[in-house]
Task: structure prediction
Amino acid sequence: MVENRHKKVGLSDEQVFAMYEKMLLARRIDERMWLLNRSGKIPFVISCQGQEAAQVGTAFAFDNTKDYILPYYRDLGVVLSFGMTTKDIMLSGFAKAEDPNSGGRQMPGHFGQKSNRIVTGSSPVTTQVPHAVGIALAGKIEKKDFVTFVSFGEGSSNQGDFHEGANFAGVHKLPVIFVCENNKYAISVPIEKQLACEKVSDRAIGYGMPGVTVDGNDPIEVYRVTKEAVDRARRGDGPTLIETVSYRLTPHSSDDDDRSYRGREEVETAKANDPLVKFKEYLVQTNVLTEDKDKELNNHIMQIINEATDYAENAPYAQPEDTLKYVYGEEGGV
Result:
């Protein structure tokens, strides 16, 4: 038996099992997307592999019945935790009319779903940060009880959008949590060529907010740090910058060849610290999970993914005449 760390931070056995389930679902969906891409069935994959612990650990610290999230393009674990389904993700991958994100108009990873308060993302990176700050400001003005979550990569922390958003949130003590998912590479640029400071979280002091760096491979520790930040924001004490440090186990996208900028030994070393494998080991050691239960869960997840894949592949594409729908105003419409 190992130390039961999850109960020390207020997580039940059922909650950590649910966290593992979301991490596993995100990984298996991602793996299926790569197979579909390589077989020529979907055009693009932007992968979450290696960052599931950071994503799910963060998401579980929020209230998915009232908080708003503005995820970045890798955040499959986050949006699944906030109510998106496997079918939703597959419809997006196949760019079908029923895709809840954009009706098949956008590339995968441009998450947006009004019913679950997932605010639509944009292709230019980091634009979601000032949007999240604006939503938090509106909530504060209207005295509404919600916290805003926004995520971005460490490369995005060098963009003006991040600095403007963080400064405004700090000045006005807004209930927004900034989560930088540091996966060591901004496409092909390694972290040491991106930052002059040691950590992304070092930047928080300039904006009058706490800054915390946490092991992004440990979902329990990510949850603990994020829950403290969320509770602080709900009390009216302002924003927090959290940096989760993990490693991107795949190329930047299905169009990238990462062999041109990082060695295979480096990637294999990172895979030996796979957060999904490590978390499974912890749950087995704490009697939350058994090998039989894990096999049963995998089988259930693969059945869901198979059904969602078949449904999305056979679903209709959007009609050509709907191309400009929601782009320009329509007579008699809103």
Observations:
- The first helix runs from residue 5 to 8.
- The two ends are 60 Å apart (CA to CA).
- The mean pLDDT is 96.
- The CA atoms of residues 6 and 16 lie 7 Å apart.
